[in-house]
Amino acid sequence: MEHEFTPKISLVLKKHFGSSASDVFNASPIIQYINLKTISASRGSKARSSFANLYAIYVLIEDYIKGNYHKKRSYSRYEGARFSELFKRQRELPFGSRLQNHALNHRMNQEFRKCFPQVDMIPILRVVDTKRYWINEKLLDIKIGRKRYNLAEAIIEIIDEYIKTKQKSFKGFIKTCEQLLQIDKKPTEEVRKFVAGLLEPYIDARIFEIVSYSILKYFYHDQIVYFGFDLDNLEESPLILYKTGRTNANDGGIDFVMRPLGRFFQVTESLDVRKYFLDIDKIERYPISFVIKSEESVKALEIKLRKGAQRQYSVKAIVNKYMSCIEEIINIPILKERFDLAVKQGNLSDILNEIIRQSKVEFNIDDSNES
Fold this sequence. Notes:
With 371 residues, the protein is of the alpha+beta class.
């Protein structure tokens, strides 16, 4: 597969291997895997980045080079890298501060096998008892004809180039938001179109979650409910929507929480009913609203979820119980309607500011580091 980042991979390979670059690419499953995982490089901040699996490779090869094993043939005697050190290093890398341990432990190997079922090697080797890890040197040290090539330094450089490209894309997104804020104090059609354009099915899941939160926050913020222990002592309480943490966080299926009603919201792009019911089970079947990255009608989505539930459970009472836990379905058309209403109420700048703030947190962009 060739995409917009592939020529950069080719340039790095030519730098390291000269006229053999093309042969190296064709002979190396791990280079081809990295090529697959860097497809989002030039697709802006909206595309999936695949940092978890790439960084699992990166930190192990970095450790491999640190021991100078790319120049000496003694890696088989190496005691292995400590998991704690690899995990710490992953989180030090750009966009890596919230990465989990799944890629290092099994996810990267599983995906590699799916992509290359004909390859009988896996990239990451480990001993669970000792928590020691190795990169599979057989994938790094390849033989073409009579000549051997070690790919370690080239792979590090390729992933570094990918990081730079993604940083540029993410910072460009933030810069665009900030520039649009300066256009005019009044909401403009250009700004409105920009934000509305972030509500599309192809948008990166993290961006979609951030934009959804920002819109819903200002959709609810001026709605008032009344609470009290008796009718003569009721207090006004505005609805406040809170984001529970970063996207893809291990938060038990809760992305947003609304006070004082105690409503839970989960953002998803999947129509796999098992995922919905898992989220419901994790919160003891407490009612939850789903924000779904889909342009299908709410009715169509409900039908699909019910059919999925019926396939999974043969008992009607169980199906009805799970379906009753879905408090509300909010799809892309509803988000756009609520966004338009918020714009009419004069909240466009607030929504854009919230998107900027949440994006900077999500993508680890520090104002002090930007020139």
